[in-house]
Automatic annotation (TrEMBL):
UniProt organism field: Rhodobaculum claviforme
Keywords: DNA integration, DNA recombination, DNA-binding
Entry keyword annotation includes DNA-binding: yes
Name this polypeptide is given: Integrase
A family per Pfam: Phage_integrase
Domain of life assignment: Bacteria
Length: 397
């Protein structure tokens, strides 16, 4: 009996129900209802697979030609079914454009992004700098030169930070595309970085008021207005302005503010709330702000929601200051380093940072609340004009 080409075109037309082998893994499967299908059986990496090649209306000669093509693919260790799926996706060019895959990658990760997902800030660098030029290009065609060309105009200028974010997110999108089975160049972002070279733009830190000058500035916030009180609390707690703006009275338990994890940035991998110790001065500020409470928020906007992120910054800007509210976190951190003996991990926790290696983080269960309470009371003493000695933490060594 012949190993191949066992069937004839005439037999294929009148074949009864059953499975009929043409040889070399090609089978005609004839159903009782008269329908039929060509199937290729092959073995890859020790696993037996079956791949449909079309219905009974496919002529015998065409079925043999198709089968021969996919046998050759399997012979070199590639999976014919995966190869065919990739070809089908490639044929639907609109489905694998960078714009479509970017949106798909964003949706898949949005739950991990907290407020960045809702605000769309994750998408912004791509929407502004990349997608207008590369959005319609299939991800399988994207290479390092394409990426270099769209980012080069901003790589060394004012948009350097956005360019860096865009480059990183292109890498995420390409990994997402690869996970879907698309053949993309995962090294394209790294190659593009090499072509772009090291950014010549120096990163500028947010200007901060020196810790020695903080009491002078704090004393100028004497008016019982929402802006003055919010800025006072930013200084006293060392928490980012967003968390202060969204502060609710029901988050305060005694002298501890339980700040929800979703509004405390910088605690990557943390899903627990952040406990902020409140000094007597901080509690006094909160009491002064109580009359402004609306819809549960202590610092509401005149229209709706809470005060904007720019409200406090504008106050400092109008005074001709280069420093900004976020810089008071640096003021506090420098004070901790210069004027206290707080261990590094305690000082970092004051700012809401998660310090230490992955192993240390996984085993640490304390948030140093008692030690931080002492430090924040001393910081409040300094801020309000009372000078103190070097702070020593009992049992914190």
């Amino acid at each position: 009996m012949r190993a191949r080409n066992r069937l004839s075109a005439a037999f294929v037309k009148r074949a009864p129900a059953g499975k009929w082998c043409d040889g070399a893994g090609l089978w005609l499967v004839k159903r009782d209802d008269g329908g039929a299908q060509w199937v290729l059986r092959y073995t890859l990496h020790g696993r037996r697979r079956e791949m449909g090649l079309g219905g009974g209306d496919v002529p015998l000669a065409e079925a043999r030609r198709i089968a021969e093509r996919w046998r050759a693919v399997a012979a070199v260790g590639r999976d014919p079914m995966k190869e065919r799926d990739a070809e089908i996706r490639a044929a639907r060019r609109d489905d694998i454009t960078l714009a479509v895959l970017t949106a798909d990658a964003f949706e898949a990760r949005k739950s991990e992004l907290r407020d960045e997902g809702k605000a769309g800030r994750w998408m912004s660098p791509l929407e502004v700098h990349v997608l207008p030029k590369l959005g319609k290009v299939p991800v399988t065609d994207i290479d390092q030169r394409d990426i270099r060309d769209v980012l080069a105009p901003i790589w060394h200028g004012r948009g350097a930070e956005s360019a860096e974010k865009a480059l990183n997110r292109i890498g995420i999108v390409l990994k997402h595309a690869a996970a879907l089975g698309l053949e993309v160049d995962l090294q394209a972002p790294a190659k593009a970085r090499a072509l772009l070279g090291k950014s010549r733009r120096e990163r500028k830190h947010i200007p901060a008021v020196h810790w020695r000058d903080v009491p002078t500035f704090y004393a100028t916030l004497a008016e019982p207005t929402i802006t003055h009180l919010a800025l006072r609390l930013v200084i006293l707690t060392g928490v980012r302005s967003k968390a202060i703006r969204f502060l609710r009275l029901d988050q305060i338990d005694g002298d501890v503010w339980i700040a929800p994890a979703e509004i405390v940035k910088g605690r990557k991998g943390k899903t627990v709330d952040f406990h902020v110790p409140l000094s007597p001065e901080a509690l006094r500020v909160i009491e002064l702000a109580r009359p402004f409470e609306r819809y549960g928020y202590l610092f509401p906007s005149a229209r709706k929601g809470v005060i904007s992120d720019a409200t406090m910054a504008r106050l400092m800007e109008r005074r001709g200051m280069d420093e900004r509210p976020h810089g008071f976190r640096s003021s506090l951190r420098d004070w901790l380093a210069d004027c206290t003996e707080a261990p590094h991990e305690v000082a970092e926790t004051v700012l809401g940072h998660v310090a230490g290696s992955k192993v240390v983080k996984s085993y640490r269960r304390t948030d140093f609340l008692d030690q931080r309470r002492v430090l924040m009371c001393r910081w409040a003493d300094h801020v309000t004009g009372e000078t103190g000695k070097v702070v020593k933490l009992v049992g914190a060594g």
